[in-house]
Design brief:
The protein has 221 residues and is mainly α. The protein has a domain of 54 residues. The chain contains 14 helices and no strands. The chain is elongated. 40% of the residues are buried. GO terms for molecular function: lyase activity; oxidoreductase activity. InterPro entries: ARM-like (IPR011989), ARM-type_fold (IPR016024), PBS_lyase_HEAT (IPR004155). Keywords: Antenna complex, Lyase, Phycobilisome. This is Phycocyanin alpha phycocyanobilin lyase.
Length: 221
């Protein structure tokens, strides 16, 4: 299939057929950010939620000065929690350190766990050590996915102090939690990390054991 020109993509984004709009939006991946972002904005209010979601994600990978304020506004005001979660995730991809405060607010104030999950993941992507207290608090969440996000994020920001808080998940009944722990400890060199990883290397779930081995090798290197 021939690649669409910028003019063709622009016209197709206004097509009454949602499939045309979706294809056009996907075609923007190869378009420079400065040309793509004005076109992405065309479908941010699309009637099809999947297209809106794709557009929000696209703003996270297209770096222009316009992207950050648009994503923050969506995170803070969009009535659809899925779009708010997408905006939180896109801010993490954008990598703009200004997103720290909006993401913290979203974690503490949004009532939807999916938004809070995306905010925690993105705080890890920002690698900002100021997220320590928030992420440690998230470890006590009743939502297992929030615990997993917090463990992974603490590993991403390489917060050595977090080892004391996350090793308690070694005996977790949830294998994915144990896998996230094994992956995170590979970024946190300490005697406790090594001890926990040696235990997890014998885990009954192969994904956990493999993650522990990889992390031990990383620490040894």
């Amino acid at each position: 299939m021939a690649e669409l020109s910028l003019e063709e993509i622009s016209a197709q984004l206004e097509s009454p057929d949602s499939r045309d709009r979706m294809i056009a939006l996907a075609s923007l991946r190869r378009i420079p950010s400065v040309d793509a972002v004005p076109l992405i904005k065309k479908v941010l209010d699309d009637e099809i939620l999947q297209i809106r979601s794709m557009a929000v994600f696209a703003l996270g990978v297209k770096h222009t000065d316009e992207c950050y304020p648009i994503l923050v506004k969506l995170l803070e005001t969009d009535p659809d929690y899925g779009i708010r979660a997408d905006a939180a995730g896109a801010l993490g991809y954008l990598g703009d350190i200004r997103a720290f405060e909006p993401l913290v607010r979203a974690f503490y104030e949004d009532t939807e766990w999916l938004v809070r999950f995306s905010a925690a993941v993105s705080l890890g992507n920002l690698k900002d050590p100021r997220a320590h207290d928030l992420l440690v608090r998230a470890l006590d969440s009743e939502e297992v996915v929030l615990q997993q996000a917090a463990i992974a994020a603490l590993g991403e920001i390489r917060d050595i102090q977090a080892v004391e808080h996350i090793v308690r998940f070694v005996p977790s009944e949830d294998w994915l939690t144990r896998q996230r722990l094994a992956e995170a400890l590979g970024n946190l060199p300490s005697d406790k990390s090594i001890s926990a990883l040696k235990y997890l290397e014998k885990d009954s779930h192969p994904h956990v054991a493999q993650a522990a081995t990889i992390s031990l090798n990383r620490l040894a290197a």
